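Ops channel
N.P.: pipeline sanity check, posting one input/output pair.
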């Protein structure tokens, strides 16, 4: 049983249990009575922070789409591979004239010179698929210089700042780096050890992407331990809520940023 004085009221606990029962996820409280004060409080806090009704909808939608995809793969039509319909993709640069591209480039450099542009790097992923440990941004992609993906991105930002600097007006590009729970500490350490790759520390803002509970194939939320729900990063789509929650939007407003360029850390081109 939970020992000592609980850090939540009985009414609050009962309300939370009822909410999870109604959502079909009451099993997450299976071991609650065995937990210590601290573990019980941590699980209560974690479960309170999860919008379980919304997460159920995410699972139902994802499972439904997966079922449709599996059914399509079993059909005879799955053997036919056809080009994408022309209306399903577009390339502005591909249809632009050299004069238009030149005008757009000049306008972009003008905005950078006025410190109106920021960059967001989506760097929450780990390098496991690349055969590396730690954040993907720390990965050495095999250049003769052994430059990591993080350093490569920083060098390009530095060069762009140099090109956009006009006279005594120094161009500064705020760099927001989205990490995740598993990569946050190592990413911070990489930047500190490399002195932010020549960029100003005050121009770099780190923020964590959110997490979502893990579901089994039966639609039930998984437990990592008896006192903790298993979670995983919520993907690049979680960036909007993460920007708001972390204070990044307010940081950008104070710097009068009007435009943002966002890209993934493994985009080394």
């Amino acid at each position: 049983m939970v020992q000592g004085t609980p850090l939540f009221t009985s009414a609050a606990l009962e309300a939370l249990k009822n909410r999870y029962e109604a959502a079909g996820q009451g099993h997450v409280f299976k071991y609650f009575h065995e937990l210590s004060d601290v573990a019980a409080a941590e699980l209560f806090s974690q479960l309170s922070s999860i919008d379980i009704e919304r997460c159920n909808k995410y699972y139902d939608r994802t499972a439904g789409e997966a079922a449709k995809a599996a059914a399509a793969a079993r059909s005879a039509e799955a053997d036919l591979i056809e080009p994408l319909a022309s209306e399903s993709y577009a390339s502005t640069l591909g249809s632009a004239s050299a004069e238009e591209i030149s005008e757009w480039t000049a306008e972009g450099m003008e905005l950078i010179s006025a410190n109106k542009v920021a960059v967001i790097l989506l760097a929450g992923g780990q390098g496991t698929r690349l055969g590396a440990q730690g954040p993907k941004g720390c990965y050495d992609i095999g250049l003769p210089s052994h430059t990591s993906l993080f350093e490569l991105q920083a060098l390009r930002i530095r060069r762009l700042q140099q090109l956009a600097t006009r006279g005594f007006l120094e161009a500064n590009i705020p760099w927001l780096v989205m990490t995740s729970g598993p990569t946050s500490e190592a990413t911070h350490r990489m930047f500190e050890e490399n002195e932010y790759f020549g960029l100003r520390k005050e121009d770099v803002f780190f923020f964590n992407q959110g997490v979502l509970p893990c579901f089994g194939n039966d639609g039930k939320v998984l437990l990592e331990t008896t006192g903790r729900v298993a979670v995983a990063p919520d993907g690049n789509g979680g960036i909007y809520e993460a920007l708001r929650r972390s204070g990044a939007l307010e940081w950008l407003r104070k710097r009068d940023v009007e435009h943002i360029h966002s890209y993934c850390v493994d985009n080394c081109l």
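N.P.: looks fine end to end. Residues 1-5 have pLDDT under 50 and may be disordered.
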